[in-house]
Design brief:
Layout lengths: L5 H14 L6 H12 L16 E6 L4 E2 L2 E4 L4 E6 L7 E3 L2 E2 L8 E5 L4 E7 L8 E5 L1
Parallel strand pairs: 1-4, 3-9
Antiparallel strand pairs: 1-2, 4-7, 5-6, 5-8, 8-9
Length: about 130
């Protein structure tokens, strides 16, 4: 090979290596910044249900969401597992079957009181509360 091509090839290598650097696309920077700033989702606080109906609780991120419901006698609560891990819901001395992803289980509260909701598979999981008036 002719020696006069060596400086040209070296310059070409330097130029190409500069193109392989970090992506400076503004759209990508915005997406990355949003990912970094995305806050963790806290469980929503429950609220009162004035008449018997069905209320819904999602199980996601090893949390019941909402953690607390204030309902009237005769209300049904339906828990739905939105996680890829399994759960068993325990309430008022009754246990649900094993709830895999997208499985649901419901329980109707037919007496007044405060009922603790927990998962027997995940004992450190925050407990929920159903207040029946």
């Amino acid at each position: 090979m002719n020696n006069r091509w060596i400086p040209f090839l070296m310059l070409l290598v330097v130029l190409i290596s500069g193109c392989a650097g970090e992506n400076t696309d503004p759209a990508t920077d915005i997406v990355n910044q949003q990912k970094e700033e995305t806050p963790t989702v806290a469980p929503t606080e429950g609220f009162s249900v004035p008449e018997p109906t069905t209320v819904y609780v999602e199980i996601k991120g090893t949390m019941f969401n909402p953690l607390e419901w204030r309902v009237v006698n005769g209300t049904t609560v339906k828990w739905t597992n939105m996680d890829s891990t399994s759960y068993i819901v325990n309430v008022d001395g009754v246990a649900s079957p094993l709830l895999n992803k997208r499985d649901s289980w419901k329980y109707t509260f037919n007496k007044k009181g405060i009922f603790e909701v927990k998962c027997s598979i995940h004992p450190r999981m925050p407990k929920g509360k159903i207040i029946v008036e």
